[in-house]
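Hi team, as promised in this morning's meeting, here are the two structures we talked about. I've kept the exact order from the run log so nobody has to guess. The first one is mostly here for context; it's the second one we should focus on when we meet again. Sequence first, then the predicted structure tokens.
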Amino acid sequence: MDLSSKSVLVVGAGIMGAGIAQVAAQSMRFAGQQVFLHDAREGVAEQAKAKLASTLQGLVSKGKLTTQACESALARIVPVSSLDEVARSGLGLVVEAIVENLEVKRTLFQDLENLVSEDCVLATNTSSISVTAIANGLKHPERLVGMHFFNPVPLMKLVEVVSGLHTGGAVAQGIFELSQVWGKVPVHAKSTPGFIVNRIARPFYAETLALLQEQAASPALLDACLKAVGFRMGPCELMDLIGHDTNFAVTNSVYEANFYDKRYVPSLLQRELVDAGMLGRKTGRGFYRYPEGVPALPPVQFEPVASCAAAPTVADDRHSGVVVKGVHIVPTDGRTTGELARDLETTAVVVHDRMMGASLTGSGATGRAPAVAFATAAGLSAEQRAVAVAHLLSQGVEPHEVVDTPGLVVARTVAMLINEAADAVHQAVCTPADADAAMKLGVNYPAGPFEWLRAWSAQSVVVLLDRLDAHYRGERYRVSPWLRAQA
């Protein structure tokens, strides 16, 4: 099914709809193609085109777009006040980008079905509503497909092509190929709660919220630890940017849609922020105050140990860490320092977070070494703590102490991202390759979950998750059957 030579109607001229219209118009390669832009609010489509003209002319002034390309793209976008105006214009595709409300979307598509030809493809840009549910009631539900763009549409490469229960294979493939013509990277997904990105990303927020509720560390430290391994923004910083009302609503939606599966349970702490009106950047305060933003971490505090740099470092066959001057310095495997101290029969135990490779790439924009969380066993002396801090500093990282929690920060977060992606593959929502592409392109993760898995090992991830599960005694950390099979 070739959709690249047919006219497109975009319904909804908000930020997403206008962005979709821009991408479609700039990518059109055949003479005579048009992008019709409609919004139920009077004058909004015209305003969206005017704003787009200003944006494109700005690109021309910067030398990023030719005057001819700008004028051609704008000429292809035609605001329309009524859907009847384009009903007989040979439309090949309608892309809906209106309010996230099932009944409103369903009514729109039922109305459109009476206006367009039977071979016109109907696409929804929904980020969370079931494509199957939207298609319910259509005469031809097989032609409805999800075409989920990410904001800002002109810059973000990912498009989730979401197939509902009735979506025709040719329709999904046609949208997949059109997305490529429009310069995007499409991935196939099955219509399940959250699709790929919004589903797999839940632990990135949830683990940090859980650690904050346990008072394990400050928001700034949790953010710093995750940025140290390549995430562009920490979870707290990102939730403040998204808005806690929006993030909390999406979490609730995924939780409800999964029949209240404990893996997706919302956070009481985040609900408190929403109830207090502390929604993040848009209200001036969330985890941080704005415009100040994320505060700098305090400097590392420890008493230097004489000749520590030359201290003998030896391996121990009871763990994957090292022993320096009698102190066991161990990367987390899901055991707390208390559990390790019991197993090793010594209190000279320090557990540090997984560095995931990216930690050691440099000091970043702050000029400081990457932050790494560590915890100490009860009974560890100040001198023994100093030995561990000095050793970690010698590895090119900046160690910051947190409360003794299983899996610390990075390890438990990445393990849960891997686990969620594994379940998505287990349930045929997507392939491992599409999961990796979606998370890197849709939310700018430094690696895909299956790339992390290959670098870490399925057995180690399963062991860590099983220990988290045993510690918290709930359903949240249950291991995906797919992941356990790999181990």
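And here is the second protein, the one for discussion:
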Amino acid sequence: MAGHRTSVSLEAAFWDALKRIARDDGCTVNELVRRVDSERGGNLSSALRVFVLARVRRHA
């Protein structure tokens, strides 16, 4: 991310959700993760989980 090596640990269900969201948004998972990364305040893994949860709630 932004020229730095990073690792993200997520459960399979979150990766699946990120893939679906990226497909729906017409972008790659990497682009989606970069977008979340640029807007986060804390840990990237947590930010991705919160992003997925917010998206699911918005579309429920």
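Starting points for discussion:
Residues 11 and 50 are 13 Å apart (CA to CA).
The chain has a mean pLDDT of 92.
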